[in-house]
Structures are given as structure tokens and as C-alpha cells.
Amino acid sequence: MGHVGRTIDWADGTVVIVDQCALPAEHRLLRLATVDELIGAIQRLAVRGAPALGAAGALGVALAAHRHGTDTAAVHADAERLATARPTAVNLRWGVERALAKLSGGTDAVLAEALAMLDEDERVNREASAHAARLLLDTCARRPLRLLTHCNTGRLATVDWGTALGVVRQLHADGQLEYVLADETRPLLQGARLTAWELAEEAIPYRLLPDSAAAAAMARGLVDGVVVGADRIAANGDTANKIGTYGLALAAARHGLPFVVVAPSSTVDASLPDGGAIVIEERAPEEVTHVAGSPVAPKDAPVFNPAFDVTPVDLITAVVTEHGVVAGTAR
Ligand code: MRU
Q1: Residue 4: which pLDDT band, with cuts at 50, 70 and 90?
Q2: Are the beta carbons of 139 and 171 closer than 8 angstroms?
Q3: Where is the active site (predicted)?
Q4: Prediction pTM value
Q5: Which of 103, 115, 164, 220 could form a disulfide with 227 if both were Cys (CB 3.0 to 4.6 A apart)?
Q6: Mean pLDDT in the chain?
Q7: Using an 8 Å Cβ cutoff, are 14 and 32 in contact?
């Protein structure tokens, strides 16, 4: 299969993404030539993961600027539609606003900013994951480490490298990882479809488990620490991440295991004092009532399908960004 480069990039006036709806069956690229196509890709999770959404927001503003030229009102209108395409990951609006701030310099200035943000994404993710890897090695007595992770936080969720999965990659490269347990991550299976695919591609030892087996794995002594990403981190460190993260934090606390959140500082929303005000995306009932297109529940079964939950900071050992530990009980 081989390494496939960036998850999201700019080529010939289009946004090019790895189509995450097609994985793991097929690795294919999509060329998105309009803001509407990009918004559609964001909403069906063809491009997903908070840092990758930040890049998508910035490149989307570049698309809009190229399309509308000097009609700045039209660019602003497209930018607002992009920023609200999904509500929870703050990186999306952050990426849109950073690129939009360059609009007075012209379309080339917008694109230059968006491209600089792609480079920056990989650099800060590498720094954050190096900090978190060191922290886990300092915290856990056992060697090599056995980690548990949730959702997909690898290079597919970022421009490149990854956050929590970047920690896994770093520890593996340093010979400090025995294995990683990857939650399948119901209902959309980002762990099974994407994380397992990335780990297999890099020959990192892993086992896939149902989300409901995570606490049992901790109880059996199979886990030394839990490492996850984030979609929005409030000023006090409360963290929104993929649904199921809060339950993992509760289980980790019960078993005395470190619970580490890894994210670029662009995921921190300092405007929110705590996690109570974080808007949680609710997704379509079919994601729960159907599996791979086939019904697994009675027709019209009522559904509760939040895409994210909020983990209170008192359950988090450390929130780690490129600046080091910024919140958590270890701070
Ligand atoms: O709905 P998704 O797949 O976009 O959710 C992604 C997550 O929850 C990730 O854990 C988070 O964005 C961090 S990605 C480095």
C-alpha cells in the first residue's frame, strides 16, 4: 500500500483529500473544486478529525477566494457556511478565520496562509505527540507500553502524523510500544476502518476491540495508559472528543491508569470557561439503526446519536499540546 502523503492538500486550484468513506476497501483521492463539494465531504466524513477539518476550513476559504475574486461578501458567505458545516471541532472555524484574515491581501495571500497552516499542522502534531510520549514513559512503570486509543487520531485525522496515534507512532519508532488496543468506535467505526488501516500500513502491533470491551481490557491488566485526541478543549481543560471517550476516562480512573489527551493548541477554545457550553453534533439515526446499509433495529426505532461527549478535566491526567501539558490532574 505504501505511504500516501498528506490527507488533505491543494493541487491545481482544487482541494485534494483522501476519501475516508472509501477506506479500508479502497485508498482513493477526491478532487473538490467547489465550496459545496468540500462542505458535502466534511458532512459525510470523507474528510474528518479536528486538525484535518482546520486545514479543510482554510483551504475552503482559498477555494472561495479563487472563485469569487474581489467579491469579498461572497467569500465571507462561503466562509460562514464552511465554519458551520460541523459544530463541535473548533479547528474548523479556526482554520476558516485564519485564512479569511488574509483576504485583504488578495487570493494568493489566502492560499499562502492555508498552505502554511498545512506545514504547521504536521510540525505541531509531532511536537505534541513527543511531549505526550515522554509523559507516558515518565508515568508508567511497565516497558514496553501497552496503550488503548479511541476513534482515529492518526495522519488521516490531521494533515500528517497524527495526535494520539502520533504518540503511538513515536513510541513504536523508539522501541517503547508493545501494542495498541484500538477501539472500533461505534457507530461509524473510525477505529476499525481508519486506525486499524493506518496501524497495519505501518506494521505497528495492534488489536481491534469492540468499544464495550475497553473497560474489560483494563480490568484484565492489558492496558498501561489511554491516549485520545480532542475536538474542542475548554479553558479549564474539559475535553470534547468522539462519543465513548468519557466512558474510557471513567474506566481509566477506576483502574488508576493515566488518561492523556493530545491535540494541537488550535483545538483549545479559550472562549469557553468549561465544557458545558460545547455544542455536541447529533448525527443521523441511520448511523445507529443500520450497519453497512442493512437495518439492525426495528424500522423507525428512536435513536440517541451524539457524535461526541465531554470528559471533565478531573478525569484527565494531562491535556498535551505542542506547548506541553496545558491542563489535567498532573499539571
Ligand atoms: O467525527 P470525527 O471522526 O470527525 O471525530 C473525530 C474525533 O473525535 C477525533 O478523536 C478528534 O477529532 C481528534 S483527531 C486528531
Answers
A1: low
A2: no
A3: 231
A4: 0.97
A5: 164
A6: 97
A7: yes
Q: How far is CA 288 from the centre of its chain?
A: 21
Can you tell me which atom of ligand 1 is nearest the CA of 307? Answer: 1
The burial of 300, by beta-carbon neighbours within 10 Å (0-12 exposed, 13-18 middle, 19 or more buried), is given as: exposed
Ligand 1 pocket, residue 87 CB under 6 Å: no
Ligand 1 pocket test: which of 20, 121, 153 has the largest number of ligand atoms within 8 Å of its C-beta?
A: 153
In Å, how far are 90, 107, 110, 283 from 66, measured between CA atoms? Answer: 24, 6, 9, 32
Cell of 156: 488521516
> 184, 216 in Cβ contact below 8 A?
no
Condensed to tens digits (0 to 9), the pLDDT of residues 275-312 reads 999 999 999 999 999 998 999 999 999 999 999 999 99
Sign of CA pseudo-dihedral 20, 5, 17, 82:
positive
What is d(CA 53, CA 94) in angstroms, rounded to the nearest whole number? 9
